Amino acid sequence: MPTIELLAPVGHHEGLLAAVKNGADAIYVGGAAFGARKEAAFSHEELVEVIKYSHLHNVKVYVTVNTTIFDQELEALKEYIHFLYLNDVDAIIVQDLGVAHLVKQLYPDFELHFSTQMTLHNTKGVEFAKHFGADRVVVARENTLEEIKAMKEAVDIDLEVFVHGALCVCYSGQCLMSSMIGARSGNRGACAQTCRLPYELVDLSTGETLDSSVGDFLLSPKDLKTIDEIGALIDAGVTSFKIEGRLKKPEYVATVVKAYREAIDQYVATRKIKISKQMHEDMDQIFSRGFTKGYLFGERGSSLMSTDRPNHKGILIGEVTHVKGKRATIELKSTLEVGDGLRFVSLNQKDQGLQVQKMFVKGKTVTLAKKGGVELELPFTVTKGMKVYKTTSFSLSKRAAVNEKSIDKINIYGEVSAKNGEPLKIMAWDDDSNLVTVESEECFVEAQTTPLSQSRLKQQLGKTGSTPFSFAYLNITMDEGITLPISVINKIRRELLEELEKRRVKKYADRQKSVVEPILTSYDQQACTPSLMVSVRNIKQLKVTLAQNIKTIYYKDIKTLKRAVDLADEYGATVIPQLPRIMTDEEISYAVYVIESLPIQTIMLGEYGMYEALKNKDYTFLTDFSFNTNNVQSIEAFKSLGISQVTCSYEINQRQMRQLVKNTPLPIEMVVYTRIPMMITKHCPVKLLNQQEFCRMCLSTPFGLRDRKNKVLPLLRTGNCITEIFNSQHLILIEFLSELQQMGIHNFRLEFTNEPDEMIVDAIKVYQQVLETGSLDRGWLESYKNQDDYTKGHYHRGVQ
């Protein structure tokens, strides 16, 4: 059986102690920049101490460098990679392909983990990662056990899987909702968790709001919990078990790491797992939105989503049975203790909460109340029948608390030689084969009065005090009647332990700063005639587009691609397959079959798997916005793969675009009209409310989600029951076409979603007019403004 790794989240020093104490094999942390959790960041100085402490305790350190990067950050990024490499980081976790490309140029031996933010979700995508230089892939949270097993059977690479904690409803790396709503980019570590807000499902054809019997939080998943299924994951080939939670409290880290450590060790030793009821309760109590086994084990709909509450639920502990004034009686189902946190929940009232300071049983003050009635004095009004949840447990927090003194000492072993006329010699080692030998400058002499006894020498050498070590074995070979000053013994002991600590802390002693200058190329940006491309989703939109004399059309529906190619041929136009962002192994195989059967020359890629499947064929490859391309290093990486053109991301602003175009090694295409896709998700809100496994309602009825500000976000089905959630407003950059051309961008795309035919026609005509004459029909633009259906996206404001 391969070595199984338990990977713990660390966002603060206390979390580090909790992870080490409770058995983590590795931790993942973020620095002050380039990490996907800005609020859980360590400074350079703090990070160095985290690395040293972790390595001292034989725990690996993986640092997140898993955000998208802009050009103005590349120099700082390069220095950061130097810093991480020279300070003994075991591996870095990356999202941006350009970062991976840069690391491989600077430090080919630096271990690379491809983040879940890279949206690697099929076997071919994992194969691509290995060929590009990844040592590990963090697979998408949407993958099933069977899909992960297929990945491992096909590709010899480490697979890391999230096994516990918060879930994203969107495929990681593809979410723009927080970015578009508040300029806080999930791709940049600043997600505002807009998915945890309430939404209503709307029938777009009638404007009717559909009733929800399950709650208002239609995009808020439960927390993942797979502890009872660890054996199946190990058997599937998973080698790293990842716990989410760098922003969580240290007690959470301690509780969850301890539980999964026990489960993994049990299965490795006995092929069975038996987790106690108390341990399950502790995990429920420490943090939970309700638990699910997730897509990993086939859960969907209401078993996946926390529709009634987007935050910690706590454990149902009782119900209000009587209220008199400010005093309420609660019938307890389990133990309540002074110091516990409670939440009172009702369908008709706002939730109220407090920490228990005083309680009464049969009129007497108590600190602990068991099953039965208990009275509380409350600073707010409650009503009979309200459910009562324990949100925090005083006793659990106390049990899970960790400090420096609670960390187990590291066992070391020693052989001591104390001979007359010779120096004190000590050889010590640990369980990881670190061996240190030291000897004193002074020599033993015959004692004139009281000789040094062997027991006293052992006592002095065993005083490891505040050091992390403890002698489990110390053998002394000693002549009789000799002595040596105690100060000398203490000095040599300190030198021994300091040297042993250095050996444990410094894992990669031979690392040196790279002097390699990353290779950047350029292409000839001669004046070009601007090109207008159109992206359509189906045959109906294709026919409308062809009638407007558009010669290059991106087409999204693989199932009708042959018909689209034939139809375009009648108009003398070219159809380029625009492949999906999400594709199963079966869908990749089908897409390859269809494409190879047609006279296709150019393909727009939506994810890495299709590139891997087609890379040895004679095709011209373009990349779509889904690759989050923001910097020249990323474009250089794509060029090295044979890509001919990239599409820039929706998160780049005017200033950043100007710098990118100036240095780009490939031509860039820009989407200048669309509804920006805010999310792509395996979860279907329509199916959730309809509560049917195969509802197919989206095929006949258009739906949307209404947010708190009364904006409606259209929903569209793509592929095999994958849902895309679009912005309520259209991105329109028609005012800046001339400016973009002056920068060096000459390829412009109109990407249509759910627009009626006449809107498609009008958009094509007005963009054609501007590109041909430079004249803009302001009335067309004003019509969008008047409907509040118009945004410039991030063109000016950018993202955090």
From TrEMBL:
Pfam families xref list: DUF3656, Peptidase_U32
Query: Key word Hydrolase present in the record?
Result: yes
Q: PROSITE patterns recorded for this chain?
A: PEPTIDASE_U32
InterPro entries xref list = Pept_U32_collagenase, Peptidase_U32, RNA/ubiquinone_mod_enzymes
| Single GO MF annotation | peptidase activity
Instruction: Give every Peptidase U32 collagenase domain span.
Output: 388-504
Name the domain of life this protein comes from. Answer: Bacteria
Q: What is the protein name given in its UniProt record? A: Protease
Organism of origin:
Turicibacter faecis
